[in-house]
Amino acid sequence: MGRLDERAFKAALADExxxxxxxxxxxxxxxxxxLRQRALTMACSVFIDLVREPGRVGGSGRLVSRPLRPGSGGxxxxxxxxxxxxxxxxxVLSGDEPHxxxxxxxxxxxxxxxxxxxxxxxxxxxxxxxxxxxxCLRLPRRxxxxxxxxxxxxxxxxxxxLDPEAxxxxxxxLRGHGTTNLRGGLEAALSVADGAPAGRHVxxxxxxxxATDADGVEAAAAALPELAxxxxxxxPEAAQRLAGAVDARLELLEGPNGVVSALDGAFSRR
Length: 270
Prior knowledge:
The chain is of the alpha/beta class. The protein has 10 helices and 9 strands. The chain has helices at about 5-15, 15-25, 35-50, 80-90, 120-140, 165-170, 180-195, 215-220, 235-245, 260-265, and strands at about 60-65, 75, 100-105, 110-115, 145-150, 150-155, 200-205, 225-230, 250-255.
């Protein structure tokens, strides 16, 4: 893989997916500029292809009453007057429009919060890139991406019009360093949630939750309308404590290859 042989990479991806993805992510930050550009192009393509499976964000709908639409399959709302319905069928408008009962699925938006403290390379970088690609494709123009270490950076805002390739490229350029300002990352996510469109909003935290300073972390997490934590299986205790304290959903990741199924769990209703 030193020369970025695509055929060898695809074979490695089939046999050892986590190791292959981690190696590709690391090579996208290579010192050699030609190798870096080739690895970056290939990494974006691979990560996006891996999550481009048919599907949609999970979540239960709810029954709503709405104006009657012929052929929609909804049931007549019996709380509305049958006499009004009979009059309308004869072309007489009573001023009281008949309604039907049907299922409505709320609009979903999301904010992905990536912990880039410590070692943001290899498996951690591949996991972040895959998670970003998945969120971009599931929720086009309804996602934000934040990264944090000692400082907090908004990589993508809800109103940005970046394509998935550009967003994944940004994430692959991250370097791990500094302290873990988990509270700052969560507070930035809360700001995104406050400005999100009406409907369901999910914050997905990609972190082991081992904050340098735990003061205020639980309060910031509890203020989010819906929080899902994706944490590595290695030393998960801090993530388990935070999830339990604020009733967040917790998904433990064995490696990069598990991020798509973990996001399925994060977006599904409990």
